[in-house]
Structures are given as C-alpha cells and as structure tokens.
Amino acid sequence: MSGRAAADPPTGVRRDLERRLGTIDAAAVVVSNVIGSGILLMPAIVARMAPEYWALMSVWLAGGLLAFAGAMAYAELATMRPRAGGEYVYLRAAYGPLPAFLTGWTSFVAGFSGAIAAAAVGLAGFLGSAVPVLADRTPWFSLSLGVLSLTISPQNLAAVTIIATLSLVHAVGLGPGRIVQNTLAAIKVLGLGAFALAGLMWGHPPPASTAPATMAGDGVTMGGWLLALVPVMFSYSGWNAAAYVAEEIREPSRRLPRSLALGTTVVVVVYLAMNAFYLHVLPMAMLKALELRVIDAAAERLFAGAAAGAITGLSVLITAGTISAMVFAGPRVYYAMARDGLFLPAAARVHPRWRTPVVSIAAQAVWSSILVLSGTFSQLASYTGFALVLFSGIAVAGLFVLRWREPDAPRPFRAWGYPLAPALFTVMSAAMVVNAVWRDPGPSAAGLLVIGCGVPIYFLLRGRSAAS
What we know:
The protein is mostly helical. It has a single domain, classed as Amino acid/polyamine transporter I, CATH 1.20.1740.10. The protein contains 19 helices and two strands. α4 (87-95) packs antiparallel against α5 (97-111). The protein is globular, with a radius of gyration of 22 Å. It starts with 22 loop residues before the first helix and ends with a helix.
C-alpha cells in the first residue's frame, strides 16, 4: 500500500489497538446494540401484518434465526481478518475499496452518527420525566451555517451532553468503556427478562370475548408474514456489532464466533420472551391498534400505574446502553478507513496511553452533535435505514466470493449451515431492500443519493492519499 496508509505513524502515536476484550465483553456490545426501542415499539407494527399468535411468534423466531445465520457468516469473515471495521473490512476484501468506503461513509454520515443522535434526543426526553427542563424543546437561539441551521434548546443541549459523556467514557480506555457497556447490557437483559417473567407468571390472559382466536391461521397470508419480517429484521439490526471490535478481542479465532453466537442468542431469547409477555396480557386487537410503546400498554394492564417509574428508568438505561454500544463500535470503522487512507488521516491514531481511536471517537461525537442541533437525524435515519440491510447482505454474500477466490486461506471458523444459511440471509436481505425501494421510493432514492455522495469523496481521498 502506498501513500499515507503505509506511512509510519508520528512519533508517540500508535496505530495498533489493544486486545483486551473477552467473549462476554464482545457479546455485551451485540446485546446493547440490538436491544433498543425496536422491541418496545415494533411488536404492534408486526401484529398488524401477522395478526395471529403463531404468526407473530414465528416471524420473530425466523428473524432471530436469520440474524444468527448472518452472525455466523460474519464470524467466518472476522476470524479470517480479525481487524477493526466490520463489513468495511469484508467488502474491501471481497469487492474492492470503493464499496467498502461507501459502507463506512454511510456509517459515519447516518448509520452510527444518525442513530446516536436520535437515541440521545430520545434519552433526553425520558430524563425529562424526572427533570422537565431536559425535555424542553423551546429554542434559545439558532445559528445559520448555510445548508444547516443549528438550534440550541435545553433538550438538544442535554442530548449533546449525553453524546459527549459516553464518548469520553469510551475514549479514556477499554477498561471504563467495558465496565459501562457490560453493566448496561446486563441491566437490559435482566430488566426486560423480569418484566416478561412477571407478565407470564402473574398476568392474566385477555378474556376470550375481547381476544380473537389467536391460534387460527385464517387472518394471516404468506405475503403479510413476509412483510412483517421487514420490521422484525430492523429490530435485530446490530447482531454484527462484535465484528467491528474484532481487533480488540483476545484470541479472536475462538472468542469472536462465541461472542456473536452468544450475543445473538440472548437477544433472540429476550425478544421471544417479550413478545410472549405482550401476547399474554394484551388482546391481539389492542396490540394491533397501539400507537404508543407496547411495553407501556402491557405494564399498565399488568401493574396499573405502579410500574410507570420502573418502565421509565428501564427505558433510560436501555437507551443509554444502545448509545454506548454505537459510540464504542462506530469509530472502529473510521479508524480502519483512515488506516487505509480513506478517511481523515488523524482518525488512524491510537492514543498512546488509552489505546483507543480517540480522533475517530471525537469525529463521530462532533458529527452526531451537529445532527442533534440541526434536527436532520430523523431524515437521515429514514433515508438510509435500508442501507443497514443492504450492506450486511452484501457482506454475507462476500463469504461466497472469498470461498471461491481464496479456497485455501486459513479459516479458523467456518460458518454454520453454509451454503444454505448465508444464501438465505443474502436473499432475504435483497428482498427487504427491494421492498423498501418499492414501497417508499422517495426516501429510498434520497438514501441512495446520500450513499452516492460518497463516490466523489472516495476519489478525492484516494487521490490525496496517493499524492502524499
């Protein structure tokens, strides 16, 4: 490799990350990345498309199995190339630098940064139930920067503070970040598990007069079931999170597959338990009609108003855990890109003491904060949501490319169910992308435009890297 990517790092700056993460640490990143607002909101949407007990549960199980198939494909790719960056690394190996850059570009512009901004604003709203000023959207003043207008409000400042705090935690070393991440992941699993167990043990099923015959299949079509798989798969997004930190996992050939399998399995169990809980205490007709978070309606029916505070507290911790996981994983993509000369050169620096990619973490925090203050995160999220499925599907398809191109390459782990499981994942990913483009051509076209804007930037960065 020529140019900046091959240059020696400046004196006192190390470009290597430290392998300190174990199986549980990496699995916690998966759990925190996946479990978020999806399981609190999506079951109502899924119930409208698959309005029978068997259909609802089977579609969540099918989504979990697909996520597991994707995780096992990533495990093979990651153990072949145990480097930071996730699908950026795999797309570069299978298809070349341009597709790899586009997945990293989308992650920085919207995938991680936009999701962090949206979650931080949501967390500020939850905190506002205890400290109302934190949810106050009243603008204090606005600053016009041409194409962007930044608005300062109490809620925006609270969201920016959340982003800055968690970014600092993950910048000062793997030790503090790992403790925070593991604690929040454990709280998510134990908290949701406690609610599900309480509902299944003490909740009373809906009266027969108010509940449809939920075991009959008359109201479900195959088309509706397949359509319901789309929001389910979006709820499972993040199953690949451990792959982004592969360069920091000890003995990656053993621990990385275990962490992906463990993290994904825990999420599937939690999701199935929560859906069983919802169906146990809510009539299907009520579940389909819900516009608010399903967990609020289920807890109200089970505990009346007594659980409101606990639900709010759990929501705060769930959202904080999601932000923390994305703050942790995202910068490893930009670090990998910078190391290859395809991002800001300083983003390849590793702090000599903390051994973290501090510039990448700071760059993500700054851009996420700009998205908060400009209010553009919601548009970016709606535009590029399908890109999560698109790039993960392309990455899993890369498994076939590399098996054909590098048949004799060392493979410490081979994907379970190959070739059927990764092929099914790739086909379903393609179907979901086509469905998104077909059903919402406007936002999808805007998303493709956002991705396409990365093409000239790629050639600009590539030219600068070659010239330096």
